[in-house]
Q: What sequence folds into this?
C-alpha cells in the first residue's frame, strides 16, 4: 500500500525477466552465482504511490467501552481454532522468536571462530556496485531517511539500503504499475526467490546485496516471508472487519520492517532493555507508520476500491463505505479520524520509548523517520481531516526543523 516500485514481470523466473526492467541473467556454477547486467538499469518508476517487556492492550478507539474483538481471520483452508487467538498474540509469538533467534545467533557468533569467506575475483566489486545501487534507490525515494543512514557505519548503512530496496520491490508487486498482472502464483515464486537468496543464490544485483547482508547480520527470513503474506492479503482482501484484522495486516506490510532492521541497527551495548522490548518498539513503529499511511491515503485507496479503516469502527461512528466513496468531510468523519489518529499516536509513543535502546549511530535516522511520519497526523488535522481530496505531507521547512530535534533526542543514553 505505501511504497512504489515499477518492477515485476508476470513470472519471476530469470528466463522471463526482461533486461529492460533492470534485471540480470543469472548463471550458476560451483554453488555460486555470476551476474551479467542487463541494459538500462532503471528499476523504479515515478509518480506511483506509494529493560522490560511492555505491551499495549488495544481497545476499539471509536467506542471506549467496546473492546476490539482481537480475533484473527483464519488463513485460506485453515479450520477455525477451538480457542481464538488474537492477531496481537500471533504477532507477539513472532516477536519472541525473532528476539530469541537474534540473541542466540549473537552468542554463537561470539563463541565461534568464523573463517573468512572465499571471495571470487570480481565479487567485491560487484557487491559494492549492488549496494551503491540500493543506496541510490533509497536516496531517491526516502530522502530524509537516506540522509540519516549516512550517520551509520558503512556496513550497517549498506545493509539497511538492501533491506529497504527488497521491501520496496515487494510492496510494488501489488501496488505498482504491473499490479494487475500479479497472481498468488507470482507471489509464491517471489517467496521462493527469497529463500534462494537467503541460501546465497541471488537472482540479480539487488538480491545479491540482501543476500550478502543476511550472511553478515543475524537477520531471519520469517519477517520477509510475512511481508510477502501481506501482499497476498492485498490481492484477496479490500476490507477489514475490525482492528484486529487490520493490526495483522499492518504487521505483515510494515511491522515486519522493524523486525528485519533491528539486527542491523544494533542494540546499544549499555542498554538494560531486553531484546524482546526493543523488538516490540520496532514493531510498534511499523504499525504506527502503516496506520499513518492508511489515514493519509483514504481518498486514494477508495478510488482503487480499498478501504482499510475497520468496518466496525466505521459503523460505530455512523458511517459506511458509501460515505468514504462520497468523500465528504462531516462531523461524524472528524470524530472517527480523531480517534484513528489518537491510536496511531499511541503506537508512535510506544515506539519512541525503544529507539533510545538502539545503537547510538542508528538512533538519529530512526528518530527522524518517527518524528516526521508522526507529523503527517498533524497535517491531516490541519487539513480539517480532509484526507479524501487533500494529501497530508510535511513541508521541507518542517522536515529541516525536525532534524536537529531528532538528533538531540538521539544523544540520550539508554535508560
A:
Amino acid at each position: 500500500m505505501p511504497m512504489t516500485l515499477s518492477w515485476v514481470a508476470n513470472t519471476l523466473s530469470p528466463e522471463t525477466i526482461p533486461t529492460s526492467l533492470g534485471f540480470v541473467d543469472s548463471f550458476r556454477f560451483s554453488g555460486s552465482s555470476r551476474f551479467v547486467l542487463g541494459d538500462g538499469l532503471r528499476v523504479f518508476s515515478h509518480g506511483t504511490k506509494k529493560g522490560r517487556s511492555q505491551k499495549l492492550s488495544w481497545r476499539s478507539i471509536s467506542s471506549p467501552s467496546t473492546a476490539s474483538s482481537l480475533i484473527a481471520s483464519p488463513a485460506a483452508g485453515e479450520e477455525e481454532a477451538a480457542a481464538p487467538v488474537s492477531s496481537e498474540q500471533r504477532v507477539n509469538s513472532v516477536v519472541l522468536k525473532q528476539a530469541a533467534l537474534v540473541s542466540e545467533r549473537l552468542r554463537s557468533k561470539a563463541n565461534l571462530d568464523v573463517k573468512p569467506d572465499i571471495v571470487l575475483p570480481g565479487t567485491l566489486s560487484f557487491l559494492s556496485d549492488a549496494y551503491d545501487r540500493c543506496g541510490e534507490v533509497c536516496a531517491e525515494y526516502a530522502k530524509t531517511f537516506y540522509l540519516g543512514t549516512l550517520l551509520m557505519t558503512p556496513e550497517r548503512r549498506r545493509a539497511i539500503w538492501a533491506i529497504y530496496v527488497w521491501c520496496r520491490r515487494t510492496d510494488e508487486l501489488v501496488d505498482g504499475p504491473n499490479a494487475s498482472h500479479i497472481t498468488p502464483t507470482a507471489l509464491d515464486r517471489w517467496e521462493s526467490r527469497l529463500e534462494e537468496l537467503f541460501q546465497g543464490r541471488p537472482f540479480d544485483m539487488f538480491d545479491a546485496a540482501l543476500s550478502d547482508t543476511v550472511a553478515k547480520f543475524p537477520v531471519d527470513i520469517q519477517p520477509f516471508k510475512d511481508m510477502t503474506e501481506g501482499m497476498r492479503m492485498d490481492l484477496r482482501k479490500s476490507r477489514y472487519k475490525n482492528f484486529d484484522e487490520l493490526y495483522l495486516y499492518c504487521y505483515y506490510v510494515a511491522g515486519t520492517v522493524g523486525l528485519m532492521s533491528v539486527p542491523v541497527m544494533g542494540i546499544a551495548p549499555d542498554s538494560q532493555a531486553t531484546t524482546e522490548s526493543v523488538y516490540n518498539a520496532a514493531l510498534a513503529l511499523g504499525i504506527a507508520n502503516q496506520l499513518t499511511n492508511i489515514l493519509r491515503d483514504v481518498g486514494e485507496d477508495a478510488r482503487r476500491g480499498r478501504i482499510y479503516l475497520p468496518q466496525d469502527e466505521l459503523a460505530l461512528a455512523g458511517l459506511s463505505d458509501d460515505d468514504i466513496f462520497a468523500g465528504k468531510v462531516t462531523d461524524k468523519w472528524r470524530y472517527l479520524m480523531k480517534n484513528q489518529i489518537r491510536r496511531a499516536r499511541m503506537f508512535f509513543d510506544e515506539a519512541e520509548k525503544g529507539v533510545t535502546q538502539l545503537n547510538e549511530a542508528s538512533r538519529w535516522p530512526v528518530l527522524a523517520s518517527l518524528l516526521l511520519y508522526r507529523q503527517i497526523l498533524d497535517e491531516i488535522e490541519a487539513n480539517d481531516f480532509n484526507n479524501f481530496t487533500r494529501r497530508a505531507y510535511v513541508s521541507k521547512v518542517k522536515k529541516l526543523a525536525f532534524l536537529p530535534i531528532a538528533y538531540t533526542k538521539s544523544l540520550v543514553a539508554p535508560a
The chain has a mean pLDDT of 79. The first helix runs from residue 87 to 111.
